[in-house]
Structures are given as structure tokens and as C-alpha cells.
């Protein structure tokens, strides 16, 4: 394959797939993970601050679907780890962690991404995952993931961007498989 053909194929692939690679940073690293045995999944808040999303039934349904996806990814992490998943906080939360997740989806404008591109109509997903000690409330781990959707075939796929973002975020949890 010639170099120019390689560049053309790469450019077409990038445009059809769209942007959306998650940029993840760990803001607080876990140091004493081995002293915990249980994990309770607390808040999994997924929302959009955009006015149009708050009044659009289709977008609200997508938010609910994505929220279920995010919770299931966290549950999958716990099941694949050495932790025991608990469905409610024990009366004595000794050796128990709580995972809270905050996910903000900015849909942007799909038509602008499709017809104009170059960042017009840009959307994205910003998520934060915090693990706290259930007994003390002390933060034990914190990771932040940011993903952008600026271009893509037919305006890109926000669902795919969100799924990548959540998977990259859960991959940062100590003991992730």
C-alpha cells in the first residue's frame, strides 16, 4: 500500500469513526486497597446540562439507557475483582467501599458535526469516579475521564463515545481486570 493510499484510508476511517478517545487521569491513587472486602455501588448520576436534552424525550431515554450501562460496567468490574458486591450498605460498614460516579453528557449538535465538522457542534462526555471509605467517608480513589465528539460519519455516535469513556474510567480502578 502506498503512503498516500494509507493516509487516505486512515483519514476516512477517522472521519467515519469520529473522535471520542477518552483522556483519563487519576487524581487520587489507591494505597490501602487490600484492607477492604466489600463494594457498594452508590450514585451513578448521568445527566446533561444542555437545555435541549432536558426537554427531549428521546435524549432522556438515551440517558437512562446509558446510566444502566455505566452501572453494569461498574458491577462487572466488582464481580471480576477480589471484592464482594453488596446491594446495601452493611450496618457496620467496616472494610466497605462506596463507588460514586458522575457523568455529564454534552450532546452538541449532530447536524453541525455532520455538515460542517472541524469542531462545530462538538459534544462530549466528562465523567468522574470516586471511591470512598464507607465508614469514614474519606476519598480513597478518584479518576476523571474526558471524551470529545467533534466529527464522525453522520455526526458521530455519542453512545459509542460514552461507552469508551466509561470503560476507560473503570479500567483505572485499582484491581481492574
Short description:
This protein has a single domain, classed as Double Stranded RNA Binding Domain (2-Layer Sandwich). Helices cover 36% and strands 29% of the residues.
Number of strands: 6
Order of helices and strands: HEEHHEEHEEH
CATH-level-2 architecture: 2-Layer Sandwich
Model regions low in confidence, pLDDT < 50 over at least 5 residues: 10-18
Strand content: 25-35%
Number of domains: 1
* Strand order in the sheet with the most strands: 1-6-5-4-2-3
Largest sheet: 6 strands, mixed
The first-level CATH class name: Alpha Beta
Task: Report on the architecture of this protein.
By secondary structure, this protein is an alpha/beta fold. The protein has one domain: Double Stranded RNA Binding Domain. 36% of the residues lie in helices and 29% in strands. The chain is built from five helices and six strands. A six-stranded mixed beta sheet has the order 1-6-5-4-2-3, with helices on one face. Helix 3 (57-79) runs parallel beside helix 5 (158-171). It is globular and about 55 Å long. The two termini are 37 Å apart.
